[in-house]
C-alpha cells in the first residue's frame, strides 16, 4: 500500500512533462488551423509522438481542449510578471494587451467546444487570474507615471470588451491590434 501512495506522490518524469507540453503546443496549432474537431491523431503526429501518448495524457477530446485553454490562461497570466520584470511598465502593458489578442484567437476556437463538461468551471477560474494580471500591469504603469492616474481596471475591462467584439469574424485580429495602438496612445500620462 505504501508503494502505491509513493507512486501517486511522485513528480511526473521530465520526459512526460516534455511530451505533455509538446502535445499542448501541437494541439493549439492544430485546433487553430483546423478547428476543435480536428483529428487527435494529427495532434500526436505534429507533436512527434504516438497517439497512445496523447491518450495517456488526455483521455478525451474535451480533456485536450480544456488543457489547451488552461495553458493559454496560465501563459497569459505569467507573461504579465515576466514582462514587468523585463520591460518598462507601460511597454509591458502594451505587450500584454497584444498577448491578450493571441489568447482570444485561441479561445475563439476552443470556447464553443468547451461549453459542456468542464468549460464553465474553467472559464470561472480564468477570469480572476486574467483580471489579477491586468491589475498588476496597470498598478505598475500608474506607479511609473507612464499612464493617466485615473486609469482603472474597469476602464481597461470595458476597452477589452470593445476590442474583443467580433473576435470570431474575419479580420478581427488585425483590427484588435490597431485598436490596442489607439488605446495605448490614449492611456499615456497627460
Automatic annotation (TrEMBL):
Gene3D superfamilies referenced in this protein's UniProt entry, alphabetically: Tetracycline Repressor, domain 2
Chain ranges of the HTH tetR-type domain: 17-76
Cross-referenced PROSITE patterns: HTH_TETR_2
Superkingdom, taxonomy of origin: Bacteria
InterPro entries per record: Homeodomain-like_sf, HTH-type_TetR-like_transc_reg, HTH_TetR, Tet_transcr_reg_TetR-rel_C_sf, TetR_SbtR-like_C
Pfam families: TetR_C_43 (PF21597), TetR_N (PF00440)
Keywords of this entry: DNA-binding, Transcription, Transcription regulation
Example GO molecular function: DNA-binding transcription factor activity
DNA-binding region positions on the chain: 39-58
Entry-linked PANTHER family: HTH-TYPE TRANSCRIPTIONAL REGULATOR BETI (PTHR30055:SF234), HTH-TYPE TRANSCRIPTIONAL REGULATOR RUTR (PTHR30055)
Name this protein carries in UniProt: TetR/AcrR family transcriptional regulator
Organism: Phenylobacterium montanum
Amino acid at each position: 500500500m505504501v508503494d502505491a501512495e509513493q507512486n501517486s506522490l511522485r513528480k511526473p518524469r521530465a520526459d512526460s512533462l516534455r511530451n505533455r507540453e509538446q502535445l499542448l503546443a501541437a494541439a493549439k496549432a492544430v485546433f487553430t488551423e483546423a478547428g476543435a474537431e480536428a483529428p487527435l491523431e494529427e495532434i500526436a503526429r505534429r507533436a512527434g509522438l504516438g497517439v497512445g501518448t496523447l491518450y495517456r495524457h488526455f483521455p478525451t477530446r474535451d480533456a485536450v481542449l480544456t488543457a489547451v485553454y488552461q495553458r493559454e490562461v496560465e501563459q497569459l497570466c505569467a507573461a504579465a510578471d515576466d514582462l514587468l520584470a523585463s520591460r518598462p511598465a507601460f511597454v509591458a502593458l502594451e505587450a500584454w494587451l497584444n498577448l491578450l489578442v493571441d489568447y482570444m484567437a485561441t479561445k475563439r476556437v476552443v470556447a464553443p467546444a468547451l461549453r459542456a463538461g468542464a468549460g464553465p468551471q474553467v472559464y470561472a477560474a480564468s477570469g480572476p487570474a486574467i483580471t489579477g494580471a491586468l491589475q498588476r500591469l496597470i498598478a505598475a504603469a500608474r506607479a511609473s507615471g507612464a499612464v493617466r492616474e485615473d486609469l482603472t481596471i474597469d476602464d481597461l475591462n470595458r476597452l477589452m470588451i470593445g476590442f474583443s467584439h467580433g473576435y470570431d469574424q474575419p479580420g478581427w485580429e488585425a483590427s484588435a491590434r490597431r485598436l490596442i495602438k489607439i488605446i495605448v496612445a490614449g492611456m499615456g500620462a497627460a
